[in-house]
Amino acid sequence: AIICGVCLAWLFFSCFICTNWYFVLFLWDFDLGFVIRSTHICFTSLLFFLLYVHIFKCIVLIILFDTHILVWIIGFIIYIFIVIIGFIGYVLPCTMMSYWGLTVFSNILATVPVIGVWLCYWIWGSEYINDFTLLKLHVLHVWLPYILLIIIFM
């Protein structure tokens, strides 16, 4: 997944209007473009499957053994990081569904009292979703896994 992600990041183009068309061209023009993108998506699905199997195993074991609450808190933080990374990766191709997913999610954040509108503006980078938003999300999608690895191995 990391090697496929590096290949996709190397060729990422953050033009809001033509991002979806860019992915179609990526699949057609580059040798094995479809294989690279599909492998990245399949490894992501495999990661979530293994994550949910691990969570189920931990829930079963918590019934048998008493564990520390700090382990559960760190595990929940890791889970939230993985969900955020997955959502950002879902938004990057900028299809209509992912665009509206980002719009709905950021407008849900806008309902948070006091800082909600500021959070929405910070995520978008302006008054609306544009090229800069995609660039910020791409940088987050690339760097958040490394931050996650630091959290895991501390």
TrEMBL record:
PROSITE patterns: CYTB_NTER (PS51002)
Gene Ontology annotations of biological process type: respiratory electron transport chain
Entry keyword set: Membrane, Mitochondrion, Transmembrane, Transmembrane helix
Annotated TM spans: 6-28, 40-63, 69-92, 99-124, 136-153
Keyword Hydrolase: no
One Gene Ontology term, aspect cellular component: membrane
Domain Cytochrome b/b6 N-terminal region profile, residue spans: 1-154
A GO molecular-function descriptor: oxidoreductase activity
Entry-linked Pfam families: Cytochrome_B
Protein name, entry field: Cytochrome b
